[in-house]
Every structure is written in structure tokens, then in C-alpha cells.
Amino acid sequence: MTNLTTIFRQYTFDDSFQQVFVSSKFLKEYQIALTFAIDYDEDGVPTNGVFRPTWDLTKVTPLAITQFKKDHPDVNVKVFISIGNNGKEYPFCPLENKSWIANATKSLTSIVKDKEYDLQVDGIDVFYEHIEAEPSDFVECIGQVIKNLKEGEVIKVASISPSFALNKEYYFSLYKSFSSFIDWVDYQFQNEVTSVFDPNTLVNLYNKLATEFYPRKKLFAGYSAENEDWATLSPIVFFLGGMDIIKKRKGPGISILYHNYYVETHITHSCMMQPC
């Protein structure tokens, strides 16, 4: 990987980012996206925009983040709070838009600014795979919260992570309405309606997204290394297609979502960070 405009994003709930090979020879920026902040309590009851972190607070600590940055002084390290859900649990479902926006703005600000966490957060990422609301509600609520956090200088960057079923009505509508506040679009290819069996198909899907929906300069290729997602998009297909997107199509970056670094993705992740 020789394109120094390359950004790599890791979705994680723990400190496994400390185990990853990161070099300024291959990367311009490394993004740690913490999964997830949710607006549900411990019993699964909706809290209407009052977000709380569900990543491992014993492992994702201020010391861990600070040490990682010290260990990689030549790479721009950024931390994101990812709000949403992986699957159908904890869907986006505001009880009332105005109060949800107010609660979300306040609670996310508290998480970013709270000295207990103090994770040097740069931005938020919107990663809802299941939504139980109208597109107009999603656009209004999410867009206004991103706008509030940016204008209040709580965050510097914001990203959205669409997937096939929700892309056009929800995420693209959001992007059209708030494009000036959205820095990155991390499209999740593991959720395609049909399996992606070869790298060329992945590249063609990326090119179509860059033509019909989002500017190429903002568009990441996202991938899940969870075993259950391999039937849709295997590691080798994503590796080969992702390299093509970065090197030839001028895509800005890629991302990987996983929960078990050692068992599921050690080989794939290492290869994504350096030539194999």
C-alpha cells in the first residue's frame, strides 16, 4: 500500500488496535471507531437520544489512546464514537424528534468532553443497520445532531456508514441535506443483497456508488470480518478489490469491522496494513 493519502479505519469495542501494525510508509491516517454508543439503557429500553458507551471501558482508556498515538507519531490517529447498531438490536427509533436531537447533542457532548473517558475524540460516525423511523425523521435527527456538534466545536469530523438496504432513502437523503457537515462516507459492502464473489464486482459496486451517490474523495470501502458476513464478502475478495480501489480508483480509504481480532482477522488485517 503505497498511496500516502490512504486512511484505514478500524471498528472496535476494545483495545485491539494496539496489536495492529501501523506505518506511515503505508498510511496517512488511522481511525479508531469505537462501537457503539447507544440510546438504550442496560435493560434495552429506549432512552430517546440519551447515549451511553458500550465499548469496553476497562480497555479503551485515555492511557491506551495516548500510548497508541505516542507509538505512531508519524500517522495521524483519530478517534470516532460510532453511534448505532450492528444488526437489528438497538435500532434508530426516536420517540420525538426535537427532544431526541436535544438529548443526543447533550449526551454525546458529555461523552466527548467527560474527563472520565477523555479519549481525545475527533468525531462521530453514524452506523445504524436497522432503522424504525421514516427517512425524514432520520435525516432531521441525525443531520441536526451532527450540525450541532460541529458548530459547537465538540467534534471536528463526522462520517456516515450506509449499507445497501438503507442507502438511498436514508443515508443518501441525509448526505444530500447535510453534505457540508459530513466528511466521510464508509459504505458497508458486507450488507449487499447479493454476494460479492470477485474483486471486479466489488470495484464495480464502488464505482457505481461514486457515480450515483457520494463523491469519490469521501467514499471509503467498508468490510466486516465477522464470520457470518464472509458468505457475502470474503476476506480475499475484499483485500484484492480494496487494493484496486485505493491504488487505481483513488478511493481515500478502507475500513474493517470485527470483534475477535486474533481468531478472525489477524492475517487479513495485517495484509491490509502492509504488502503481503
Automatic annotation (TrEMBL):
GO biological-process terms attached to the record: carbohydrate metabolic process
Coiled coil: none
Residue intervals of the GH18 domain: 1-276
Family matches, as PANTHER family: CHITINASE 2-LIKE (PTHR46476), RUBISCO-ASSOCIATED PROTEIN (PTHR46476:SF12)
Protein name, UniProt field: GH18 domain-containing protein
Organism: Lupinus luteus (European yellow lupine)
